[in-house]
Amino acid sequence: MQIISLLENSTNNPLLGSEHGLSLFLESNGHKILFDTGETSLFAENARILGVNLQDIDCVVISHGHSDHGGGLQTFLALNKTAKIFVREDGFGPYYSQREDDAYHYIGLDRNLLESKQLVFTGVEHQLYSGISLFSGVTGTKFFPKGNKTLLKKIGETYIPDDFSHEQNLVVEEEGVCLLIAGCAHRGIVNILEAFHTKRGYFPTHVIGGFHLFNHRTGEPESDETLSLIATYLQKTGAKFYTCHCTGAYSFNFLHAKLGNTIEYLSGGTHLTIEKEKNI
Known about the structure:
Elements: E1 2-7, E2 23-28, E3 31-35, H1 42-50, E4 59-61, H2 67-70, H3 73-79, E5 84-88, E6 95-98, E7 104-106, E8 119-122, E9 125-129, E10 132-135, E11 151-155, E12 158-161, E13 169-174, E14 177-182, H4 189-200, E15 206-210, H5 224-237, E16 240-244, H6 249-259, E17 263-265, E18 271-273
Parallel strand pairs: 3-4, 4-5, 5-8, 14-15, 15-16, 16-17
Antiparallel strand pairs: 1-2, 1-18, 2-3, 6-7, 6-11, 9-10, 10-13, 11-12, 13-14
Helix pairs in contact: 5-6
């Protein structure tokens, strides 16, 4: 199983650009998958530099309806006319952020793309291919991210708290590896892992994604107490974690101090080969 981080808030390659967003290339079970497209067309330029041909992509998964994860969709659709785009039924919102000026800023996907015939709207469970599936409908409320408080959806003329029903997670199983990919974990990474465990009776072997452990509006991380409790839970799962994007530098360093090498940062340009560990 191969993963390349095409785009993230940071990069380990001076040839690549970075922005507040996420885009991952995944190759597994004979399929090439794009997970999220970042905010702009930058993911496509980075893909070119990294040798990833977007015309070869079989399908795209949009983790949720925010522009830093699906803003590059128009660019992708111009390059690839056949790949299916898997997005939740309410993925096009509309979604807003209340910023420092107290105004409501649109942060959703481009609703003009709703006309695309490449879109496939997913339910709570959706099988993509053998060993590759999506799940959503996470309802737990443990350690619900503080940064969610200013993220809203608009119904009529009213702005209400977003319940993130538009968020979905990718599961990839291959030769003893079970990888869970969460885009931003707005529902809370602990709740997502618990939902996964409830469905399957075991935890994933590997987890990739942003954990939304800092408030993008204020720049403040979750409290040390909350981070410590999250670290204890993550350790209990026995999984290997690769986190990025909305986790935040302070939160990552805190978790790394607790978890050591069982958690790593996945900056743009990183190549991962994930395979079952062999007994020595």
